Amino acid sequence: MTFKRTRCPHCKGKLEGAQRIHPHCIDAYADAQAAKADRARARAARMAAKVEKAETRKRREALKRIPDLIKEAQTAFNAWVRARDAAQPCISCDSPPPDLSQLHAGRDAGHYRSTGSASHLRFHPDNCHAQCVKCNKWGAGRAVDYRIRLVRRIGLERVEALENENVTHKWQRTELTEIRDTYRAKTKELKRGKP
Ligand SMILES: [Zn+2]
Ligand SMILES: [Zn+2]
């Protein structure tokens, strides 16, 4: 089926007689069509790359073992603890934060009850606080000092709640990825809030 075209597809100007395009518009029209096709191809390629990337990510995520996911979630959680406590002194020796502009300078996220013996509390915000690297290395040796300041910071009731919480927990994949992603987002938010 043919139709009578009255407007030039390129410049939208009026056509004469049986013209389907102005002769002087042919080249420009062809160029414009080619450019349009190029853009469409590029867009399709970008979409395909995006889908591919998401699938690769999904496959990689599926291959991760629970210990890998615990590690990733712990890294994210600890980074958040350091950001949360950026203005706080060390939880076990009271030395001031190194430099407020450098959130992570020289500090660890130190657990009150260790991740080894109390894995169920490894992501508990009350159980983890910014600590000098030195104090963190002392480990159990600094536990008494840690407790004194922990009581000061969160109150005896919450410290005792931590001490009495002994129901072990088997971390699941979905929990771990959720913890990881949540704390990554929370850290970003905290840092955005800082001048
Ligand atoms: Zn034209
Ligand atoms: Zn310290």
Topology:
Elements: H1 26-63, H2 66-84, E1 107-111, E2 128-132, H3 133-138, H4 143-154, H5 156-164, H6 173-193
Antiparallel strand pairs: 1-2
Helix pairs in contact: 2-6, 4-5
The structure holds zinc ion (2 copies).
One zinc ion binds at residues 8, 10-11, 13, 22, 25.
Folded structure, characterized:
A two-stranded antiparallel ribbon has the order 1-2. α4 packs across α5. The protein has helices at residues 26-63, 66-84, 133-138, 143-154, 156-164, 173-193, and strands at residues 107-111, 128-132. The radius of gyration is 30 Å and the shape is elongated. Helix content is 54%, strand content 5%. With 195 residues, it is mostly helical. It folds into two domains: 1-63; 66-193, no CATH class. The protein is built from six helices and two strands. The site of one zinc ion has 6 residues, from loops.
Which key phrases capture this entry?
single chain, 195 residues, 2 domains, two-stranded antiparallel sheet, 6 helices
Give a short synopsis of this structure.
The chain has 195 residues and is mainly α. The chain has helices at 26-63, 66-84, 133-138, 143-154, 156-164, 173-193; strands at 107-111, 128-132.
Q: How would you describe the shape?
A: elongated
Low-confidence blocks of residues = none
- The average pLDDT value, as a whole number, equals 91
Structural class call reads mainly alpha
Distance between the termini: 67 Å
Count of helical stretches: 6
User: How many separate domains?
Assistant: 2
Kindly estimate the percentage of residues that lie in beta strands according to DSSP: 5-15%
> Which value, in Å, is the CA radius of gyration?
30 Å
Bound ligands, each once: zinc ion
- Going across the biggest sheet, name each strand in turn: 1-2
- Tell me roughly what share of residues is in helical segments: 40-55%
Major sheet? 2 strands, antiparallel
The number of distinct β-strands equals 2
H/E topology pattern = HHEEHHHH
